[in-house]
Design brief:
By secondary structure, this protein is α+β, with helices and mostly antiparallel strands. The protein is 15% helix and 29% strand. The chain is built from three helices and 15 strands. The strands form three sheets. Strands 1, 3, 4, 6, 9, 12, 13 and 15 form an eight-stranded antiparallel β-sheet that branches. The N and C termini lie far apart (84 Å). Bound molecules: magnesium ion. Magnesium ion binds next to strand 7 and strand 8.
């Protein structure tokens, strides 16, 4: 009995328990990071894209203008999810997201396209909640709500994996962060290759081609023919959702007054 007590004191139970707990916790965290890489932030190198263009970029021949600064063009080409006229504001040639007004969708459907979008994120309000995803936030989606190229004010604003500007949302972080500060005009030139999906004999979605996205952010290549892995959701294991050969393009209402100008599309 005396021996046991002595060894108990020598073993020094509480420090041993504490260090064991630390080791187990570290192992659990390492395992979680390995299994769930999307939960960990990655450092995306910053690339200076140079000064913002003063004017909208010229529209190439063969492109179809989806927004040219006029309310007429907005109404002709875009609608809400329930097929109503967009509730976003057009003023001085600029289209601004109306928070709560809902996302807007092209009236026409598209397959493989080149898409040019100019946008500017709003100046962040200070305080808690206005960092990360709380900064100016929107998105360009293909096939309604399936494949998103994230729009975020990523200027000196780290966020979670593949959640920032130029990301294929939650699937692929951009090669570099080419963001300009909020308030300045920025461009996305996106090459979208539509996934080819079919219903398999077992009823599941069969992927004949995953499609791909390439993105130039302010002229800098940040995504280079990256295959899609399914619908872009915050889930870490994206799933495919069946669709046909063409779908609507969406600009997202994510509750911030992101501005747009000069949007054109060229089918490929
Ligand atoms: Mg978004």
């Amino acid at each position: 009995m005396r021996t046991v007590r002595r060894s108990f004191r020598q073993w020094s139970f509480w420090p041993a328990l504490a260090s064991t707990t630390v080791v187990v916790a570290a192992a659990v965290l390492a395992l979680a990071a390995a299994l769930l890489p999307g939960l960990t932030e990655v450092d995306v190198p910053v690339a200076d894209p140079g000064p913002a263009p003063e004017r909208p970029a010229p529209v190439p021949a063969g492109a179809r203008v989806l927004f040219d600064g006029t309310a007429e063009r907005l109404r002709a080409n875009w609608m809400t999810a329930d097929a109503q006229a967009p509730r976003w504001q057009v003023q001085d040639g600029v289209l601004t997201v109306e928070p709560g007004g809902g996302s807007i969708y092209t009236r026409d459907v598209f397959g493989d396209v080149e898409l040019h979008v100019e946008f500017a994120t709003p100046f962040p309000r200070g305080g808690r909640g206005f960092h990360g995803q709380g900064r100016g936030n929107s998105g360009v989606f293909f096939f309604c709500d399936r494949y998103e190229v994230q729009i975020l004010d990523s200027y000196e604003n780290p966020t979670y994996f593949a959640g920032g500007a130029g990301s294929i949302y939650r699937q692929s972080a951009p090669a570099v962060n080419a963001s300009r500060p909020p308030g300045q005009w920025q461009t996305y030139d996106i090459l979208f290759e539509a996934p080819v999906l079919a219903r398999g004999p077992d009823g599941r979605v069969q992927v004949e081609s995953p499609g791909s996205l390439s993105v130039r952010h302010n002229g800098i290549l940040v995504q280079d023919r990256v295959p899609l892995r399914g619908k872009t959701t915050c889930k870490l294991a994206p799933a495919w959702e069946l669709h046909g050969p063409a779908g609507r393009i969406q600009l997202q209402d994510h509750g911030s007054r992101v501005r747009f100008r000069n949007i054109w599309v060229r089918p490929r």
